[in-house]
Design a protein that fits this description.
20 helices, single chain, 68% helix, mainly alpha, globular, 459 residues, two-stranded antiparallel ribbon
Length: 459
């Protein structure tokens, strides 16, 4: 089957890159003085990935890969990485808790189900490192290092970066994006250290901020940490190609990106609403707003103190999410813009002459009907998954608002929690959140394609 062989070829390269990068937590854990068994399992996890790569490569053949197969490949890659990340953690906690943590890490969610005694320095670094990898995405790193530029690379790349891409797509352009990601990470580390964080905490926070992941060693952010993290979360929530174009042209943009304008507008409105409707400071209100909208998941307060109205507001912000082309999750700002513009067009159309053709435009650029249809389909799927997940939570006695909040956090890969996620959460609900995190990281549809692909192979 030619399609299967091409699929195997790319999957082998993704698992090879993942195997190489997964060695890093093992070496770092040695420096941190981590338990020897944890270190051993880090290397065993890497060895398993090497084995998978070697086996699948035997059946692989280079060739062109379509967008559907590339989407399925991406979905499988995140699942594989989540399992690999969970293996070392299993020495400290139950297998399901470890799997929950591994998936939460690679999907850049930040929800945790581990007991406090399992959060050793090695586990902290492993989680944050996998979030850093997941933020840029396994597939993009693979293209950067192992795959030659061309249409196949484009199809995998576009799954992650959407329609905002350098033209033409080239190896040098992708490598520049990787360099920007690394430069931002180093800058974040230095800035966190400058405000007084110790080196280890600075590294963890930098890795989980730039990836909008949220796994921090700090339970709550306050003081100067709050305001610096707020700014850095905002930076990370914008399309990474904004910084690509700034670097490429060596000058500031002539005008703000439309998604950045949308993000700022929603932040101001929601931040004010959260402040006036909750008993928290203005700084905490805007911190929680940016954390939810960027899908980072840092917190400055105990979310249990918030009323239902505030929880609903944060749930909506999490589902809206960050900019398309950023490391953040959610439906994305650009799609929200397309939705509102298409609604405006539909309302205006009956007032125009019958033969008038109306198009949805973003910054003067026509949005195709296929793109509008795709946006509505994705929104519908998000709502369907959210309704089912919330309903299952309510079956276990949790309130509707709390169930919606936790499900939204997982599906948007945010990580904000009101305390439901944890070692005491019922196992079926942990499985629900694991599925939500995986679906949300790749925007649901690639997993539909993956199931379709597996069914096609069986046929």
């Amino acid at each position: 089957m030619p399609g299967f062989r091409v699929f195997s070829y790319y999957y082998a390269r993704i698992t090879m890159l993942l195997a190489i990068t997964s060695l890093i937590p093992g070496f770092v854990s040695m420096v941190l003085g981590e338990d020897i068994l944890f270190i051993a399992l880090c290397f065993i996890s890497s060895l398993l990935l090497f084995s998978i790569s070697w086996i699948t490569d035997r059946y692989g053949t280079p060739g062109e890969i379509g967008l559907v197969d590339a989407s399925a490949l991406t979905a499988l890659s995140f699942l594989t990485a989540g399992i690999a990340a969970s293996i070392p953690i299993m020495i400290y906690d139950e297998p399901l808790n470890a799997l929950f943590e591994g998936v939460s890490a690679i999907t850049t969610t930040g929800l945790s189900s581990l007991h406090s005694y399992a959060l050793t320095p090695g586990v902290h670094f492993l989680r944050s490192f996998y979030q850093w990898i997941g933020g840029l995405s396994i597939a993009l790193l693979t293209i950067t290092i192992l795959v030659q530029p061309g249409s196949s690379a484009y199809n995998i790349y576009i799954v992650h970066m959407g329609k905002m891409k350098p033209k033409p797509l080239s190896s040098s352009a992708i490598k520049l994006i990787l360099k920007i990601y690394i430069v931002l990470t180093v800058f974040f580390i230095l800035l966190y250290m400058f405000i007084g964080q110790d080196p280890f905490t600075s590294v963890i926070n930098a890795l989980t901020t730039v990836s909008t992941g949220g796994f921090s060693t700090m339970n709550y952010f306050g003081g100067l940490n709050l305001y610096i993290a707020l700014i850095l979360m905002f930076v990370s929530a914008q399309p990474i190609l904004i910084y690509y174009y700034v670097f490429k042209n060596r000058r500031l943009l002539h005008r703000l990106d439309v998604q950045m304008i949308s993000f700022i507008t929603i932040t101001i409105i929601a931040g004010i609403l959260l402040y006036i409707s909750s008993n928290i400071s203005i700084g905490e209100a805007f911190f929680q707003t940016v954390s939810a909208l960027s899908t980072t998941g840092y917190t400055s307060i105990n979310n249990n103190i918030l009323g239902d109205h505030a929880k609903l507001l944060l749930s909506v912000l999490m589902i809206i999410g960050a900019g398309l082309g950023s490391t953040g999750g959610g439906l994305k700002q650009l799609r929200l813009i397309i939705l509102f513009k298409s609604i405006g067009n539909a309302l205006r159309k009956p007032l125009l002459p019958r033969k008038t053709i109306t198009m949805v435009k973003v910054r003067g650029v026509n949005v195709s009907s296929d793109e509008v249809e795709w946006t509505y389909m994705l929104l519908t799927l998000y709502i369907m998954v959210l309704i089912v997940s919330t309903w299952i939570f309510t079956l276990y006695g949790y309130s509707l608002v709390d169930s919606l909040f936790e499900s939204s956090s997982a599906l948007a890969t945010t990580g904000l929690s009101i305390g439901l996620s944890g070692p005491g959460l019922e196992n079926p609900l942990k499985i629900v959140l694991i599925i939500d995190m995986l679906l949300g990281r790749v925007e649901i549809i690639p997993y539909i394609y993956l199931v379709t692909y597996v069914w096609r192979i069986r046929r």
